[in-house]
Recover the amino acids of this structure.
C-alpha cells in the first residue's frame, strides 16, 4: 500500500512537470521580460527601474536557468507575489480556501445525494415517461450558464423578494444567510450533469447477471438497486466524484465573484480582470497537483470498494 | 391424483424488440410432480431458458410480455401474483442456478454475505446463520467451508463458484430448483462433477429439478422425464429412457445424434436442417 | 504584400467562400459517413426518435440564422452587410430602452413614441433585441466551428494513431492528454487567453487546444477495440499499408464517435464562450454575443424598472441552442449504441 502510493506519486512527476512547462511557456516564453515589466510597473517605468525589476527576478538569465528556478519555486510552494496587489500568493490562496469550501462542500454533498437519489429513482422507473421527463430536466439544468442562475436568483429572490442577501460573506453564526443561495446554485449546476452520468452507470449495472441472481433470490427491487447495484456502481462513481476535489478547493469562479464570497474563485476572477498573471498560473499548477492527488485517492478508494483490486 | 407441484398451461411469451415482436415461447404445456426431475432440452434460442425464467416472472418486462397461459404453482397462478407474493416464491419455493457462475454471483460481496441474504429473506427464524451457511457449503462439496465462505467470488474457481450458487439456491429448501445450463460455462471434468453433485443432492433432498440444457448427453442419469423444445414449442416429451431409446420427433433424433459416443467412428457430427423441420 | 493579403482575407467574398466551404465540408462528411451501414441503421433509428428530430430542427434553424448573418454582401452604411441585415432592414431604430411590445420609450418623461413595435423590446442603443439576439448566433457558431476545426481533427487523429500503433505513440499521446486533463479546464483557458489576448480566433485556439482530450480518449479506446477485430488482422495479412488500414478501415468505424462528440462538444463550446466573454477574456468588446448580452444584463436588471428582456432573450437563445445540442447528441449516441441491435 505504502509502496503503491510512493510509486503513484513518482508517476505524477512527469505530468506535473508537463503542466509546469505549459505555464512556464505561457508565462515566460510567450511574454518578454519587458512586456512583463511594463504590465507590472506601468508603461512609463523605463530605464533603470525596469532593468532592475527584470534583474531582481532573474528574468534576464538564460531560459533553462529560469525554468529550473521556476520549478524550484513552485514545488517548494514559494509562489512569489501577485503583480497587482503585491501580496504573497500562498497566503492569498490559503485565505481563500475557507470561504470557497463553505460554498463548494455543502453544495457538492447536496448535489451528490440529490443526483444519486435521482439516478437510482430513474433506474427504478427506467424507460417510463417519468424517466424521460427527469432526463430532460437534467439536461435542461446543465444547459443553463452559471451566471444566468446567479443573476436571476439575485434579481428575483434576493433583491425583489428580499429572501436572501444578494451579496457578501462573514464568518459568523448567521452566515448561512449568505451561503444558502450560492450553495443551492452550486448544487443545481452539478446535479443535472451528475445525475445523467450516474444513471448511465447504474443502467449499465442493471443488465448484469448478478442482478438477475438477486431477483431470483427474492430480493426486492429497491434493495437490489440500493445494495447490489449501488455497491457495484460505486466503483465507477468513485472516479467521477473524487475528480471533483480540485474543483471544490479552487471554488467556483462565477458563483463566488457574483455573490462576493472572498474565496479562491473570486480572487481568480479579480486576477483575470486585472491581468494578474501569476495568480492564474499558480492556480493552474495547484489545480493540476490537486487533480493528481485525487487520482491517488481514487485508486485507494477503488481498492476499498472493489475486492478484486489489490494495490501492489 | 393430487395437484402437481407445477403446471404450465398454454404459455406464450413474446419479446418486443425494435425490429418487431419475437415469439420466444409459443403455447407450451407441461407438468412437474413433487420431487420429479424434468430436463428441458433444446438448442440456443429455442425458448428453454425463457421458460425457466418465466416460472417466477424473472424476465424483464418490457421487452418481455406474457401473451397467454398460466403458470400454476400448486394451483396458484404465478402470472397473477402481486410483486411481494412473487418475492416470497423466488428463492424460497423456486430457486435458480444460472449458466455463468462468475458473473451471476455479485462480485463485490462475499459468498457468506450473499448466502446470508437469502437466509435472512426467507428463513428469518435461523439463529446461527454462519452454521447454516457452512452446512450447505459442505453439502455441495466445498472443502473447508468456514474459510471459503469469507471469500469473494473471484477468489474461487469456476466449479467452486457454481457449487456456491447451488448452495445459495438450496439454503431456503426450495420445492423446485431451476438449473439453467448449470454446466455450460465450465470445463468438461467440472461439468461431470456438478452433474454428479446434483444427482447426490437429488437423492438427499426431496426437491423437484428442472434442468435446462442443450446437451442430451448429461441428462440420462438424472432426469426422470425430458421435454424437447424447438422454436418455442415443446415438440416431444416423455420419460427420459424412452425418449432416448425411441425418439419420435426428427428434431429429437437429430439432437440425440449430436451426442458423441464412445467407440463409434464417424466422419462428422449431424447438422440440423431447420428448414425441413420447420416444414413439419 | 502582407497588406494585400490581409485585405483579401477580410474581403467579403473570401469570408463568404469560407462560410460556404465550412457548411459544405460538414455536409460532405455526413454524406460520406452515411454510406456506412452502421450510420444507415442509426439514421433509421433517428427517424423514429421524436425528441431527436425536434432538436435537430432547432439546431438547423440556428445554423440557418447564423449562416445568414455570416454571409455578407455589399451595401449598407459600412460597405458590407449580412443577408440577415437585409431581412431585418425594416426594423425601426429607437433612441434607447423600450419594453417588449411597448409603444413608448422606457421611463420617458415626455412619453416619447416609438418608431415601431418590438417583440422583445430594444436595448440601451435602441436596437431591436430580437434582431440582436439572432445576430449573436454568428459569434456562437464561429467559435463553435473554429474550435471544432481545431480539436476534432487533432483528437481523432491522435486517438486513432495511439489506438492503432500503441507502444511509443500511445505513451506520448497518453502523456499529452493526461497532462492537459490534469488542469482544471477554465483555468487553462483563462491562462492561455490572458497571454494570447482577447479575440474570437484566440478563444477558438484556446478551446481547441484544451478540448481534444475527451474525443481523443474515446477514439483511442474504440480504435483499440476495433484493432483487435479480425478484419484488421485480415487487412494486414493481405498486405495493406498502415495508411490504408487507418483511413479505410478504422476511421469509418470511429467516425460516429466523432459526430457525437462534435455535437455535444459544440454545446460545451457555446456555453464556454458565454462564460469566457462574461469573465472578460472572451469575445472582444463590440462583438454581439450572448455572453456579452448577459453580462450587460446584470446591471440592467438592477435598474428601476428592471430591464429584463435583453438578458432574458440572450439567456433563452443560448439555453435553447445548448439544450437542443445536448438532446441531439444524446439521441445520436442512443442511435449508434452497439448494444441496441
Amino acid at each position: 500500500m505504502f509502496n503503491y502510493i510512493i510509486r503513484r506519486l513518482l508517476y505524477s512527476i512527469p505530468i506535473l512537470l508537463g503542466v509546469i512547462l505549459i505555464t512556464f511557456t505561457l508565462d515566460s516564453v510567450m511574454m518578454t521580460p519587458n512586456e512583463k515589466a511594463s504590465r507590472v510597473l506601468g508603461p512609463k517605468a523605463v530605464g533603470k527601474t525596469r532593468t532592475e525589476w527584470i534583474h531582481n527576478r532573474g528574468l534576464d538569465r538564460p531560459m533553462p536557468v529560469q525554468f529550473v528556478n521556476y520549478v524550484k519555486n513552485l514545488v517548494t510552494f514559494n509562489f512569489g507575489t501577485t503583480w497587482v496587489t503585491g501580496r504573497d500568493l500562498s497566503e492569498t490562496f490559503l485565505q481563500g480556501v475557507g470561504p470557497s469550501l463553505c460554498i463548494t462542500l455543502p453544495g457538492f454533498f447536496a448535489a451528490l445525494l440529490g443526483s444519486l437519489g435521482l439516478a437510482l429513482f430513474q433506474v427504478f422507473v427506467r424507460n417510463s415517461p417519468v424517466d424521460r421527463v427527469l432526463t430532460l430536466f437534467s439536461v435542461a439544468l446543465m444547459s443553463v450558464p452559471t451566471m444566468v442562475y446567479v443573476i436571476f436568483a439575485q434579481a428575483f429572490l434576493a433583491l425583489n423578494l428580499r429572501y436572501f442577501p444578494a451579496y457578501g460573506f462573514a464568518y459568523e453564526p448567521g452566515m448561512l444567510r449568505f451561503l444558502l443561495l450560492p450553495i443551492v446554485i452550486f448544487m443545481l449546476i452539478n446535479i443535472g450533469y451528475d445525475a445523467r452520468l450516474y444513471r448511465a452507470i447504474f443502467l449499465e449495472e442493471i443488465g448484469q447477471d448478478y442482478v438477475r441472481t438477486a431477483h431470483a433470490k427474492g430480493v426486492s427491487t429497491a434493495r437490489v438497486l440500493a445494495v447490489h447495484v449501488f455497491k457495484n456502481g460505486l466503483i465507477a462513481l468513485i472516479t467521477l466524484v473524487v475528480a471533483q476535489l480540485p474543483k471544490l478547493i479552487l471554488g467556483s469562479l462565477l458563483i463566488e465573484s457574483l455573490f462576493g464570497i472572498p474565496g479562491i474563485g473570486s480572487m481568480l476572477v479579480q486576477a483575470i480582470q486585472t491581468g494578474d498573471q501569476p495568480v492564474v498560473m499558480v492556480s493552474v499548477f495547484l489545480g493540476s497537483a490537486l487533480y493528481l492527488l485525487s487520482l491517488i485517492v481514487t485508486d485507494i478508494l477503488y481498492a476499498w470498494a472493489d475486492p478484486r483490486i489489490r494495490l501492489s | 391424483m393430487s395437484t402437481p407441484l407445477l403446471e404450465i398451461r398454454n404459455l406464450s411469451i413474446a419479446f418486443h424488440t425494435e425490429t418487431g415482436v419475437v415469439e420466444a415461447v409459443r403455447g407450451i404445456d407441461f407438468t412437474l410432480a413433487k420431487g420429479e426431475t424434468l430436463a428441458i432440452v433444446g438448442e440456443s434460442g429455442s425458448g428453454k431458458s425463457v421458460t425457466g425464467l418465466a416460472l417466477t416472472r424473472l424476465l424483464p418486462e418490457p421487452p418481455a410480455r406474457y401473451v397467454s397461459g398460466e403458470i400454476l404453482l400448486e394451483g396458484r397462478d404465478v402470472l397473477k401474483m402481486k410483486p411481494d407474493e412473487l418475492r416470497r416464491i423466488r428463492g424460497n419455493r423456486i430457486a435458480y442456478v444460472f449458466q455463468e457462475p462468475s458473473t451471476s454471483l455479485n462480485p463485490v460481496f462475499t459468498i457468506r454475505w450473499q448466502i446470508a441474504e437469502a437466509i435472512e429473506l426467507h428463513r428469518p427464524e435461523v439463529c446461527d446463520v454462519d452454521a447454516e451457511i457452512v452446512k450447505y457449503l459442505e453439502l455441495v462439496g466445498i472443502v473447508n467451508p468456514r474459510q471459503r465462505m469469507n471469500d469473494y467470488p473471484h477468489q474461487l474457481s469456476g466449479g467452486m463458484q457454481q457449487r456456491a450458487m447451488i448452495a445459495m439456491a438450496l439454503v431456503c429448501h426450495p420445492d423446485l430448483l431451476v438449473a439453467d445450463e448449470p454446466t455450460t460455462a465450465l470445463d468438461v471434468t467440472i461439468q461431470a462433477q456438478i452433474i454428479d453433485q446434483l444427482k447426490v443432492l437429488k437423492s438427499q433432498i426431496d426437491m423437484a429439478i428442472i434442468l435446462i440444457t442443450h446437451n442430451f448427453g448429461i441428462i440420462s442419469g438424472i432426469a426422470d422425464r425430458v421435454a424437447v423444445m424447438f422454436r418455442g414449442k415443446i415438440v416431444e416429451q416423455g420419460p427420459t429412457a424412452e425418449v432416448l431409446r425411441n425418439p419420435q420427433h426428427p428434431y429429437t433424433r437429430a439432437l440425440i445424434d449430436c451426442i458423441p459416443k464412445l467407440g463409434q467412428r464417424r466422419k462428422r457430427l449431424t447438422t440440423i436442417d431447420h428448414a425441413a423441420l420447420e416444414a413439419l | 504584400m502582407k497588406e494585400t493579403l490581409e485585405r483579401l482575407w477580410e474581403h467579403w467574398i473570401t469570408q463568404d467562400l469560407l462560410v460556404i466551404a465550412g457548411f459544405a465540408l460538414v455536409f460532405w462528411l455526413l454524406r460520406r459517413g452515411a454510406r456506412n451501414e452502421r450510420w444507415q441503421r442509426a439514421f433509421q433509428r433517428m427517424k423514429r426518435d421524436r425528441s431527436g428530430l425536434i432538436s435537430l430542427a432547432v439546431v438547423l434553424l440556428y445554423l440557418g440564422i447564423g449562416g445568414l448573418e455570416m454571409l455578407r454582401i455589399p451595401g449598407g452604411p459600412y460597405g458590407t452587410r449580412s443577408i440577415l441585415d437585409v431581412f431585418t432592414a425594416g426594423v425601426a431604430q429607437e433612441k434607447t430602452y423600450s419594453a417588449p411590445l411597448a409603444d413608448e420609450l422606457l421611463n420617458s418623461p415626455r412619453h416619447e413614441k416609438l418608431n415601431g413595435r418590438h417583440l422583445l423590446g430594444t436595448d440601451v442603443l435602441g436596437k431591436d433585441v430580437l434582431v440582436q439576439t439572432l445576430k449573436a448566433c454568428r459569434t456562437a457558431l464561429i467559435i463553435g466551428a473554429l474550435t471544432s476545426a481545431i480539436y476534432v481533427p487533432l483528437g481523432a487523429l491522435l486517438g486513432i494513431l495511439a489506438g492503432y500503433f500503441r507502444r511509443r505513440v500511445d505513451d506520448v499521446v497518453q502523456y499529452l492528454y493526461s497532462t492537459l486533463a490534469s488542469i482544471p479546464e477554465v483555468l487553462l483557458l483563462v491562462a492561455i487567453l490572458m497571454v494570447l489576448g482577447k479575440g474570437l480566433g484566440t478563444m477558438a485556439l484556446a478551446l481547441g487546444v484544451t478540448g481534444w482530450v475527451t474525443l481523443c480518449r474515446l477514439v483511442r479506446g474504440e480504435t483499440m477495440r476495433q484493432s483487435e477485430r479480425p478484419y484488421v488482422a485480415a487487412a494486414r495479412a493481405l498486405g495493406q499499408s498502415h495508411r490504408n488500414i487507418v483511413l479505410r478501415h478504422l476511421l469509418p468505424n470511429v467516425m460516429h464517435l466523432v459526430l457525437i462528440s462534435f455535437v455535444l462538444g459544440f454545446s460545451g463550446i457555446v456555453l464556454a464562450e458565454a462564460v469566457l466573454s462574461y469573465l472578460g477574456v472572451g469575445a472582444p468588446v463590440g462583438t454581439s454575443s450572448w455572453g456579452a448580452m448577459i453580462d450587460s444584463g446584470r446591471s440592467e436588471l438592477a435598474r428601476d424598472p428592471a430591464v429584463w428582456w435583453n438578458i432574458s432573450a440572450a439567456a433563452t437563445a443560448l439555453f435553447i441552442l445548448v439544450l437542443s445540442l445536448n438532446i441531439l447528441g444524446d439521441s445520436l449516441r442512443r442511435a449508434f449504441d452497439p448494444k441496441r441491435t
Q: What stands out?
A: The longest helix of chain A spans residues 89-124. The two ends of chain A are 6 Å apart (CA to CA). The mean pLDDT of chain A is 83.
